[in-house]
Amino acid sequence: MTDLQITTPVPTVGSSTAVVDDETRGAAGLTAKNVACWFGTKKVLEGVGLDMAPGQVTALIGPSGCGKSTFLRTLNRMHELVPGATLAGEILINGVDIYRGAIPVTDVRRRIGMVFQKPNPFPAMTVAENVVSGLKLSGLKVTKSEREDLIESCLTKAGLWNEVKNRLGDPGRALSGGQQQRLCIARSLAVSPQVLLMDEPCSALDPTSTRRIEQTISEISESVTIVIVTHNMQQAQRVSDRCAFFLAAENEPGRIIEEGPTKDIFTNPRDSRTEDYVNGRFG
Amino acid sequence: MFNSRSPSRQWTVRRRAKADPVTSVTDVVETNALEKDRVTPVVRRGKVDRVYRAVATLSGSIVFVVMALIGGFLLYRGIDALRLSGWGFITESQWAPDMGGAFGIAAVLPYTVSIALVALFLAVPISVATALFITEYAPRRLRRFLTATIDLLAAVPSLIYGLWGLFYLQPRLITLSKWLADNLGFIPFFKVNEDFGTSLGVFPSSTFVAGVIVSLMVIPICTSVMREVFGQAPPGEREGAMALGGTRWGVVRDVVLPFGRGGIIGGSMLGLGRALGETIAVTLIISPSFDAKWSIVEQGSNSIAALIALKFSESTETGISALMAAGLALFVITLIVNTAASSVVNRSRSGSATEI
């Protein structure tokens, strides 16, 4: 992994069988097979199977507490960091299981990046250092010019370059909330992830910043597969290609009720609960 | 609870200057509130609140009172000796107030500081590593066990450390002293007087041995403070670092250590305060010397606290006064170190979570 340019070859968008020459570069397909999750003895997720095709945006929707964030965190092995959290089933990236030792866990997380609900730039670092922090964290070396190119290209992709190009030496915390979140996206992109997981990335932001991030999502989705958890139905409609609706009945683990192209989920859902939810009748 | 003196004019925006040509909404609400009409919010406290407040204030001020009493007492008792010696108290290295001779802290103070520095030099790296192991690497059960053990270590009386150090550690430690003198003798700290050669006999009761024993007492204190601060490193930043493919070490280096910097410095300073004042263990280990020297491995050392403990029972009136003055010097130095420590800890951003 010496070449860290983000200009990775774009796989054929929309074709779920797209195969990239190099397995660790370019948008990758992610597959969940029969995933179940527990926190201690409490089962919070059951029988979840989902195909997240390369280069597509998949939105996970559903009321609070239905397990969609938990599911998202199983996709890059963040789930296991919670004490007492366990899971069953398989998660495959380009067909390779991420839980059974075929890929080192740090590689899993580098290839499957994550953007959190609250912007969390590293406060001890400048804007520029934040962007390339992932390289240092995962022990990758780049030359000075590569580093500068990477900072510019990632910030550009995250739609932040013009706003911060003269403030690269400022602390990351000096930016506004929306800018911080885009800085976190740029930071994730700098390690050339194949999949980017977003856990309600706009829920702490104002409408303008939200628009800006949605724009970023649609711009980067060609080169990286995106899975986004959102409570905002309009946002799911605007940004996603496919949608999965999660629901947990009382005292039962969450499941996927319905999954399909976003348009169908919103205009022609098969399940009445989906219809009720997307039309704002509960949740 | 707001009490306005002019009820009819409450909550008015202060009037714009007359010259202001802009007619805005605030001008529409035309009032003639003047500066003298401004409200002073009156807070009426309930009885319980007042009592609680009085008790808390009293308890809080006791700290200052005790502090002032100690300082005042030392100054009062030591002033005679200070008058007698003048500036010599700082420049003189001998200690012979009882025979009417000269006395000063020019040797005792450097020894005190160097014992403390040796202790800190060993304690800080060990404490940082221990605290990191507890917060970052240890499995949960081991973590609890280790934390309890370290707190227990802090509770062991220093006399016990002193005895153990004297009879068990020192005979083993001087082999290391000899090795340092033989191999690193070119550094002034590890040099010994050639006249004696480097037989093991010249190494006991040195600054180095005392420093090692004191470091054992300082480690639990430093570790406790650092563990506390490291444990507060924001989970959001930790997860962010993990999600970038960060290794454990990467997370420690880029999130935990920058966050815990204040804790490391503060913990070290608290340890330094403790090391400067350590008495009984140092008294047991050292053989008092009143000639300041660079070597830390060679026999002979001293400390203000040990000096006071050793001389107190056999001193005349002038001697006691001189010891009080030395105590005052120690008191002031410890005060400065601890004040510096708390200001550093307060300035660190420990406790501020990932907020927008």
Write the layout of secondary structure elements.
The complex is a heterodimer of chains A (283) and B (356).
Chain A: E1 30-39, E2 42-52, E3 57-61, H1 68-74, E4 85-93, E5 96-97, H2 105-111, E6 112-115, H3 127-131, H4 133-137, H5 144-157, H6 161-164, H7 177-189, E7 195-199, H8 207-220, E8 225-229, H9 233-239, E9 242-247, E10 255-261, H10 262-267, H11 272-278
Parallel strand pairs in A: 3-8, 3-9, 6-7, 7-8
Antiparallel strand pairs in A: 1-2, 1-4, 4-5, 9-10
Chain B: H1 25-28, H2 47-85, H3 88-91, H4 108-137, H5 140-155, H6 158-184, H7 207-230, H8 235-243, H9 248-277, H10 280-285, H11 304-311, H12 317-347
Task: Explain what you see.
The complex is a heterodimer of chains A (283) and B (356). Chain A is an alpha/beta fold. Chain A is built from eleven helices and ten strands. Chain A has a six-stranded mixed β-sheet, sandwiched between helices. In chain A, helix 5 crosses helix 7 and helix 7 packs parallel to helix 8. The N and C termini of chain A lie far apart (44 Å). Chain B has one domain: MetI-like (MetI-like fold). In chain B, 64% of the residues lie in helices and 0% in strands. Chain B contains twelve helices and no strands. The two termini of chain B are 33 Å apart. The N terminus and C terminus of chain B are likely disordered. The interface between A and B is medium-sized, with 34 and 23 residues.
Summary, kept brief:
The complex is a heterodimer of chains A (283) and B (356). With 283 residues, chain A is α/β, with parallel strands linked by helices. Chain A has eleven helices and ten strands.
Key phrases:
heterodimer, A: 283 residues, alpha/beta, Rossmann fold, 6-stranded mixed β-sheet, 4-stranded antiparallel β-sheet, 10 strands, 23% strand, globular, disordered N terminus, B: 356 residues, mainly alpha, MetI-like fold, disordered C terminus
